[in-house]
Amino acid sequence: MTDVFFMERDPYAPIRHCYPVSKVLYHGKSPYQEIMVVESPHFGKVLILDGVAQCDERFEFIYHEFMAHVPLYAHPNPQDVLIIGGGDGGVLREVLKHPEVKRAVLVDIDKEVIEVSKKFLPTMACSFDDPRAIVINEDGYKYIQDYEGEFDVIIVDSTDPVGFAHVLTTEEFFKYVYRALKEDGIYVGQTESIHYHVEIVRRVQKALRKVFPIVDLYTAVIPGYAGYWWTMSIASKKYPVREPSREVTVSTKLYSADMHRYAFLPESFYQRILNGDYSF
Ligand code: AG3
């Protein structure tokens, strides 16, 4: 074991994760953020943006599978998919496992995250050369404003809602998402943990409810994110989301039809979170 550690700077969590580091593989600064890739004995390579661990080789599959397959299987025929953020390529890899997908547009503001991921995280950034992948380096908040009725599924794989990522959790943004979706489209975004970030979860859920007729919350346990019990907010124009709408055939490590159902919170707990009477 090494004596060198990386201490995470999670903007909202009341604790700090500390990763043993055997090697710093990359450390740089893009116009948008500080980018780091370290090798940690238990986790493998870890991508760190502005001091916050985004994904690690060991457990990234959990987050990426649930971000991609819950909306894609709730939808009966997802052909056009938009990913905002997700420059490490993990969500893109999962999205492109669906043969129905004809086009996956990935809009990440920071080109350097994609470059660094291609170089150091090849198991995640392995699908950028797929002919169905289109990569655009632009601000997702601006990009989405140009589209109407274009996408079946929109996935927002953003950093925590601070700085340039904050607008991606506002009602104004969700109105653009609604417009950019086809008339039966589905949105998903990562919305932090239940116990350390419940106010953020509630705020985003309320904003989504102002815009979409069907809004729900599902969760996955992510060992690398402080708070662990991580939430994903989903909103749909037409299809119910708690069940897969077609047979699950893609190969995964954790996602499956019964895990899809299990990921959604029981109604009573969900209502407590929404109403603000889950306090501790
Ligand atoms: N994006 C969301 C990471 C949020 C982590 N936040 C935290 N630990 N406070 C992950 C990018 C993976 N593609």
Automatic annotation (TrEMBL):
Swiss-Prot/TrEMBL GO biological process terms: spermidine biosynthetic process
CDD domains: AdoMet_MTases
InterPro entries: PABS, PABS_CS, SAM-dependent_MTases_sf, Spermi_synthase, Spermidine_synt_N, Spermidine_synt_N_sf
Pathway listed: Amine and polyamine biosynthesis; spermidine biosynthesis; spermidine from putrescine: step 1/1
Enzyme Commission identifier(s): 2.5.1.16
Keyword line: Cytoplasm, Polyamine biosynthesis, Spermidine biosynthesis, Transferase
Cited Pfam families: Spermine_synt_N (PF17284), Spermine_synth (PF01564)
Positions that bind S-methyl-5'-thioadenosine: 33, 108, 139-140
Protein family membership: Belongs to the spermidine/spermine synthase family.
Protein name: Polyamine aminopropyltransferase
Gene source species: Thermocrinis albus (strain DSM 14484 / JCM 11386 / HI 11/12)
